């Protein structure tokens, strides 16, 4: 029977040191861009946006998830540059938990936006009682509970730091879980988060988008606006939404399955381990970049946000608008006074 080298269960050398400069560079860029774009988004939501609905409720929670993760990125950059974690076990576990909270929180909140758009376009009348701000808040609370139930055990119930044999003073974080940890706990976590946090949301996003596209093929079914412009906006929203979802989350989550199989020794061989370890850092960097792409989804998803930004661009002339309004009010007042004086004069002359 022929033997294949990638099926042999031998000790494999690790050649993934390229991940450290890659992580430190990408995470630094994501920190700067993600902090700025999400800070602008939360400013618009909190201070500028007057009209709020269930869609903006989902997006505000998505911003909160992104910012929580962005604030931990400087710690990760420091670690990947120095290859040692000096901040203690608690902060390491918090950082691990917030990574999974952000990723799968983003996936679920984007799914909520997709389902909400599906209900608004495909079932605009029957969904009126469902699409309320109160129900949106309840859904967001359920999403947070679900995400935290998966991310907190991953971060806090595991010994996420360990000593490296060659360097006694170096402490690991975010990596080098033992095989026993993968077999006893992490493999079960992967099954849970992949099913609930990725596969089901992916099917919902694709299914809802397909139904919306089918509805758009029948223009009389589109209840809002009407006409070609409205259809173009919806198509653009779907394209941006699905592109962001697939680009950021599919590579990491597909590779995570194979990475789990390799670490639990279900998938054996140096070739398989080498391929998975090479793809994993690249896929992780793409997944982390979702913090930068989410604000783009906000803009194309919410027409009220677009209008708010347009009002901001015209904010350089507030005094002119107020002056025009005042002049209009004053001219109307003078006209009413003139009419009253003319009427009184006519009555006086007739009585004389």
Automatic annotation (TrEMBL):
Subcellular location: Membrane
Membrane topology category: Multi-pass membrane protein
Transmembrane segments: 20-46, 58-81, 103-126, 138-158, 189-213, 234-259, 279-301
UniProt keyword annotations, A-Z: Adaptive immunity, Disulfide bond, G-protein coupled receptor, Glycoprotein, Immunity, Membrane, Receptor, Transducer, Transmembrane, Transmembrane helix
UniProt xrefs under InterPro entries: GPCR_Rhodpsn (IPR000276), GPCR_Rhodpsn_7TM (IPR017452)
SUPFAM superfamilies: Family A G protein-coupled receptor-like
UniProt keyword annotation of Transmembrane helix present: yes
Pfam family, one: 7tm_1
One of the record's GO molecular function terms: lysophosphatidic acid receptor activity
Chief location of this protein within or outside the cell: membrane
GO cellular component: plasma membrane
Gene3D superfamilies per record: Rhodopsin 7-helix transmembrane proteins
G-protein coupled receptors family 1 profile domain boundaries: 37-298
One record GO biological process: phospholipase C-activating G protein-coupled receptor signaling pathway
Entry-linked PANTHER family: G-PROTEIN COUPLED RECEPTOR (PTHR24232), LYSOPHOSPHATIDIC ACID RECEPTOR 6 (PTHR24232:SF3)
Membership in a protein family: Belongs to the G-protein coupled receptor 1 family.
Entry protein name: Lysophosphatidic acid receptor 6a
Gene source species: Hippocampus comes
């Amino acid at each position: 029977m022929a033997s294949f080298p990638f099926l042999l269960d031998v000790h494999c050398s690790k050649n993934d040191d390229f991940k450290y400069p890659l992580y430190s560079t990408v995470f630094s860029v994501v920190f700067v861009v993600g902090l700025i774009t999400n800070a602008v988004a939360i400013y618009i939501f909190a201070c500028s946006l007057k009209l709020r609905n269930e869609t903006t409720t989902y997006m505000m929670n998505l911003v909160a998830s992104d910012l929580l993760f962005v604030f931990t990125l400087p710690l990760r950059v420091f670690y990947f540059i120095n290859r040692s974690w000096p901040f203690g076990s608690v902060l390491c576990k918090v950082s691990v938990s917030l990574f999974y909270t952000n990723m799968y929180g983003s996936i679920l909140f984007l799914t909520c936006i997709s389902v909400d758009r599906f209900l608004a376009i495909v079932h605009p009348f029957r969904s009126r009682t469902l699409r309320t701000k109160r129900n949106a808040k309840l859904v967001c609370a359920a999403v947070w509970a679900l995400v935290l139930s998966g991310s907190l055990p991953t971060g806090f119930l595991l010994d996420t730091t360990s000593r490296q044999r060659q360097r006694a003073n170096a402490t690991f974080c975010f990596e080098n879980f033992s095989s026993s940890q993968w077999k006893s706990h992490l493999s079960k976590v992967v099954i849970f988060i992949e099913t609930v946090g990725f596969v089901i949301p992916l099917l919902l996003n694709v299914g809802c988008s397909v139904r919306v596209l089918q509805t758009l093929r029948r223009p009389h079914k589109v209840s809002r606006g009407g006409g070609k412009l409205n259809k173009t906006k919806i198509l653009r929203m779907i394209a941006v939404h699905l592109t962001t979802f697939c680009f950021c989350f599919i590579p990491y989550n597909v590779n995570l399955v194979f990475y789990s199989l390799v670490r639990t020794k279900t998938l054996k061989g140096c070739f398989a381990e080498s391929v998975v370890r090479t793809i994993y850092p690249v896929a992780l960097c793409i997944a982390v970049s979702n913090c930068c792409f989410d604000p783009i989804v906000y803009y194309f998803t919410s027409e009220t946000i677009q209008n708010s930004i347009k009002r901001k661009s015209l904010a350089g002339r507030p005094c002119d608008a107020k002056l025009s309004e005042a002049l209009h009010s004053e001219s109307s007042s003078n006209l009413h006074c003139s009419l009253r004086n003319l009427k009184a004069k006519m009555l006086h002359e007739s009585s004389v």
